Amino acid sequence: MTESVILSMQGMEISFPGVKALDRVDFTLRSGEVHALLGENGAGKSTLIKCLTGVHRMDAGRIMFDGSEISPSSPQEAMKMGISTVYQEINLCPNLTVAENIFIGRQPMKRSQIDWKEMNRRASELMERFNIHIDVTRPLDIFSTAVQQIVSIARAVDIQAKVLILDEPTSSLDENEVDRLFRVMEGLKKEGLGIIFITHFLDQVFRIADRITVLRNGQLVGTFEAGGITKLDLVTRMIGKDMDAIYNLKRPDVAKDAGKMLEADRIGITGGTVGDISLHVKEGELLGFAGLLGSGRTETAQMLFGVTRAGKGSIRKQGKTIRVRHPIDAIGQKIAFCPEDRKRDGIIGDLSVRENIMLVTQGRRGLFRPMSRQEQVQLAEKYVKLLGIMTPDIEKKVGELSGGNQQKVILARWMATDPDVLILDEPTRGIDVGAKAEIQRLMIELCGKGVSVLFISSELDEIIRCANRILIMRDGEKAAEVPGGSTTQHEILSIIAGEGVQGGVA
Amino acid sequence: MMRKRMKLDTERITKSKLFWAIVAELLILLVCLIIRPDFFSISYQPSSGMLYGSLIDILNRSSEITIIAMGMMLVIATAGTDLSVGSLVAVSGALALRLMRWDLDLYPTPGDWSITPLYLVIAASLGACLLMGSFNGLLVSRWNMQPIIATLILMVAGRGIAQVITGGKQMTTMFSPFKFIAHGSFLYLPMPVIITAAVILVIYLSTRRTAFGLFIESVGVNRSASRVSGLNARRIIMTVYMISGFLAGISGLIYSSRIISNDSNNAGQGYEMDAILAVVIGGGNMAGGKFNIAGTVMGSLIIRTIITFVYYFGVAAEAIMVFKAMIIAVVIILQSEPIRRMLEKRSRMRRSIQGGALHE
Hints:
The structure holds 2 protein chains of 2 kinds. By secondary structure, chain A is α/β, with parallel strands linked by helices. Chain A has helices at residues 45-52, 75-81, 98-103, 116-129, 145-158, 175-190, 202-208, 231-239, 244-247, 297-305, 327-332, 342-346, 353-365, 373-386, 403-415, 433-448, 460-466, 489-497, and strands spanning 5-16, 19-30, 34-38, 60-65, 68-70, 83-86, 109-110, 113-114, 163-167, 194-198, 211-216, 219-225, 260-268, 277-282, 286-290, 312-317, 320-322, 335-338, 421-425, 452-456, 469-474, 477-483. Chain A folds into 3 domains: 5-246, P-loop containing nucleotide triphosphate hydrolases (Rossmann fold, 3-Layer(aba) Sandwich), CATH 3.40.50; 259-334 and 419-506, Rossmann fold, CATH 3.40.50.300; 342-416, no CATH class. In chain A, the strands form 5 sheets. Chain A has a 6-stranded mixed beta sheet, sandwiched between helices. In chain A, strands 18-19-20-15-21-22 form a 6-stranded mixed beta sheet, sandwiched between helices. A 4-stranded antiparallel beta sheet of chain A has the order 2-1-4-5, with helices on one face. Chain A is globular, with a radius of gyration of 24 Å. Chain B is mainly α. Chain B has one domain (51-314). Chain B contains 16 helices and 4 strands. Chain B has helices at residues 2-15, 17-35, 54-61, 63-77, 85-101, 118-142, 147-166, 176-183, 191-208, 212-221, 223-228, 233-258, 271-281, 293-313, 320-335, 337-354, and strands at 42-45, 50-53, 185-186, 189-190. The longest helix of chain B is centred in the C-terminal third of the chain and has 26 residues, at 233-258. The two termini of chain B are 17 Å apart.
């Protein structure tokens, strides 16, 4: 292939106090290709992108873009040159309309006033190009995350971009939405754009990427053609150690005489989209929850934990009927819950690791029996060590840790309460392979100690590998229950898809 | 190793807002001392059994704001604001005077008497403010109203309520037990100082010696996550507004005792802003989160010191507010992140030049 190189970075080097964040990294991007950038957290992916977009100044190295050397000093400058970035967190204004979001700062003018008609027309043209048929005059926040993501891509692309950087664009999308995004990416590729795609989802890399560059500890491991490398090989290169240990996780069988730990009988939200869910989980059992986003997985978990109130049905724990109207009730019953939206419902960002870990334990002890400073430190240090939380010290603000470590802190918070039932809603989303594997290992270890785990995940291979039994949800109802391990992804997908609905991954 | 640790600690101290608040306070005091060499002198007056002096005066007169700021601090820590406190000061005073004087037509001359015993006067005033605090709390915690809007209701209505209570009249009293609240003394110190110290102590014990402080901060940083972690966010938010109202009541009693009368229009005027300012100077974040008791007390002292300073400086009465605003602006700007970072950078540079270690 003789595609032209649009962007090349040579010998990129940058040091931060105490770390060499990038060490002689080379990277080239051709126009009309999707180039995946992989590596664990801290491998240098973001740093490389930040050098390219002028957030950081590199110590050495040169960037050639479109035939000339550049050194942008700010993301705005990079954008003007034609290098646009779409970040993981959507950087748009949810209260403005779609059109306003696309054209903010460069609104079409007519007689020194904003030409709303023209703006809306151009915005809807642009969205049509991406096969998104929506009313661009509606506020952005009424649309799904995928549409919002595509709006931010539309905005980036419309500014005459030649290179588009997508930083974890799919981390909050479900399968259908990912498909939608990928179609958009294919379209842009045909138009000759070079796309740098950063993600943690390896399946997606193999679906869309033409080439893959792997970084580890700030160094270049290599650049590979997507067709010429296997997944296992890729992961091994990313984390630098053998992945067999992780892929051969030994899932303990549930003891034959294990009693039912938690049962739900026809629970549902009154007037809501989820109704009539019945399920049970045994002592020491790992129950997987599969299904698309919005299929009722999260709602079911939230009902079990009292985040949303189950208007009908009943919940039993160890045979006794319990009332769960508020998380406090569930915690009292030794149920624990790691929520899906880590930022919104999980971490208390401005508080320290220590405070975040002790929070639920203290809540259970009540207001008037405060833990002594020494107890707090002991508790926090124990779990930081046990879960391998990477933090300089326990007084660090949780908000400043990486996603994987934040997730571990939340897990620590709940493990400290010594729960009987642990509900995990997408605990491995958006975190790197190493942390992911550790969380899976922890789950399985807890099961071995008799804890019942309910594990919700969008990644089927993960569920199949870990769960004893898999419950499949569709359209707010329980669609099927299949055994873990022996069931294939394809079987689950066809159940998820149901009749007449198109499936997800091939 | 040892040196590194020490450097780290000084860095932590200079980064804290409390440190800069203390520096600012000392600077203002220093200027006062230069203008008036006898500024720091404190004398004992046997007739009243009290210490006298400018410093004592600053402590005494800052009481109303410090007490209110304690409540405001907790409210702000939950990411709220309580604008009603100034008006509650007026309500508290109005109710107290009404209960003592009852009817100006029946008892036209003020004297050392009261219709209602003092304990009932205090209980009623504080009870009323507690109730109004609960109203604020209810609006914010249960009906999810924005705190500024919710407390604006009583900020506006409060002065009206005070007017209604007193029938629009200004009453005066000579009732000595009531006068004692602001004019009495205990342990050589004016009563307001003692009351303030007690309030600070109670707030400290109830927030830092129980888990209440952590829960408040947790709810302030992330209400949703706190709920999932099993905290009763509603009850916590409700409680801080009740505390804020109650403390405004105490402040109101001190104020009305100080002027031995009620003043529905001017009592507590602008206190809510001074209290917010004290909290912010003390390191509080309007978006909720960590609160600092010592910092807030410092903030309140700074505000009072500035007013004293302005009087001593001989600034014309009309210009006092402008002057106060200017000094506060300087304090806040000095504390702001970019300026502090700039100062830090400079001092680090100077240090490395002095040490001859340019090529670090």
